[in-house]
Structure formats: structure tokens, C-alpha cells
Recover the amino acids of this structure.
């Protein structure tokens, strides 16, 4: 009886060892990369605007900046929804009167206070930009610091580009598998990388020149195009035919 039990144990151990070795065999797979991209014209822009006020003391300068900022907001509201306009922080500093140079006590130059109120406009329709530029040019002590074009439905386009990148990866893997004489199995792992290459921020002078060109009938082309990219790395299992 003892001999029979020992024999059964050895057979069971051998079977277990065989299964363990089989499980440790490397999985046959192929790793491929898929890519897709699309150039899209921006349809909106974000503007950063500075509105200044000057006076002999800080309270007067802040009051003047606030009054000028209110006038700018009223002007902007003619071109975009009020909810897209935000008044940000106000900075106050002492400057040499009539300039932007910082005032020093030992300079002997006349001094005044300069208050600068920041205003941000979001989701401004790109075709309204030349009109906004011309309107702001008429506002006192107002300048546009930056213009940042963007695409309003970038997320939806990213999803579409991602599907194209997946199709590209699957097609590549299929061609390789066919050449090797094997079948393409299910995906094992997927890594997604998306990139929305937004347009650079434009300084006031460049945008102003484009606005002048548009006013002369040359069109407005400063915004260029945005490139939306997607890249995927997919591992597929390979199966015997």
C-alpha cells in the first residue's frame, strides 16, 4: 500500500512540474506603434489685457485703472459673452511721472503711482479678433499683452485621431503577422500618448500688424494651424495558423 501511494505522489509531482514549465513558456507577441495627426485651424483665442491708471497716490491710481477697466469690459462685451471676460489682479507701483520707469527716492525726479489692472478674455471667436484689436486701440492706457489661439473642440478631434492611430497600429501588426505566416490575436497591452500642439502666444505688435493687414483687406492669418497628434503602442498576441 505504501508503494502505491508513493507512486501516485511521484506521478502527480511530475504532472505538476510539466504544467509549471508550460506556463513559463514566453508568450509570442508583437509590439507595434500607430500614429495619426491632423492640422486644424483655431476658431477661438484667449487675450491677456493690461489697463492702467495714474495718479499722485495709490487710491487715485487704482480708481483710474478701475474706471478704464470698466470701459474696456463694456467694449469687449460687444464682441463676446460677458461670462468670457474676467477681471484679475491689480498691481500698484511708484514710477517716474509720465513713464513706466520705477521711481527712486534719490533720483530727484517727479513721482506718481501707476496701477495696472489685468483682464482676460477667453473663447473669443477668432474672426472677431481684428475688430477687438481696433476697438481696444481706442481705449486709453490699454494694451494687449498676449493672444493665444486654440481649437474649441480639440478634445473631440483628439478622440477621432486616436481611433485612426489604433487602426494604423492594428494594420501594421496585421501586415507583419501575415508576412510571418501567423495569425494576429487579441491585444495584450495598450499605451496611449496624445499631443495637442497649440499655437504659440502672439505678442501685441505681431497681432496688431495682422489686424492692420486684415483691415486693408489682406485677411487675418496670424493664427496659423494647430496640430493634433495621437500615438499608440499596442502589443498583440501571435497565434499559430
Amino acid at each position: 500500500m505504501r508503494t502505491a501511494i508513493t507512486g501516485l505522489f511521484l506521478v502527480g509531482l511530475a504532472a505538476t512540474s510539466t504544467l509549471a514549465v508550460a506556463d513559463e513558456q514566453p508568450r509570442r507577441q508583437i509590439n507595434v506603434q500607430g500614429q495619426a495627426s491632423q492640422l486644424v485651424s483655431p476658431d477661438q483665442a484667449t487675450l491677456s489685457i493690461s489697463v492702467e491708471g495714474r495718479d499722485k497716490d495709490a487710491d487715485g491710481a487704482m480708481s483710474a485703472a478701475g474706471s478704464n477697466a470698466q470701459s474696456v469690459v463694456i467694449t469687449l462685451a460687444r464682441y463676446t459673452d460677458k461670462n468670457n471676460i474676467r477681471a484679475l489682479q491689480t498691481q500698484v507701483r511708484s514710477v517716474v511721472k509720465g513713464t513706466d520707469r520705477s521711481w527712486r527716492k534719490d533720483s530727484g525726479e517727479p513721482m506718481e503711482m501707476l496701477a495696472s489692472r489685468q483682464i482676460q478674455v477667453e473663447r473669443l471667436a477668432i474672426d472677431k479678433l481684428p475688430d477687438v484689436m481696433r476697438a481696444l486701440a481706442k481705449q486709453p492706457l490699454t494694451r494687449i499683452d498676449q493672444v493665444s489661439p486654440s481649437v474649441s473642440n480639440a478634445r473631440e478631434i483628439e478622440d477621432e485621431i486616436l481611433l485612426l492611430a489604433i487602426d494604423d497600429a492594428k494594420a501594421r501588426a496585421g501586415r507583419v503577422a501575415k508576412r510571418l505566416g501567423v495569425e494576429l490575436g487579441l491585444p495584450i497591452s495598450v499605451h496611449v500618448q496624445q499631443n495637442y500642439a497649440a499655437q504659440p502666444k502672439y505678442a501685441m505688435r505681431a497681432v496688431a500688424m495682422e489686424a492692420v493687414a486684415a483691415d486693408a483687406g489682406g485677411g487675418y492669418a496670424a493664427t496659423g494651424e494647430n496640430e493634433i497628434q495621437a500615438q499608440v503602442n499596442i502589443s498583440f498576441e501571435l497565434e499559430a495558423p
Q: What stands out?
A: The chain has five helices and seven strands. The radius of gyration is 33 Å. The beta strands are 29-40, 44-55, 85-96, 111-125, 142-150, 183-197, 226-239.
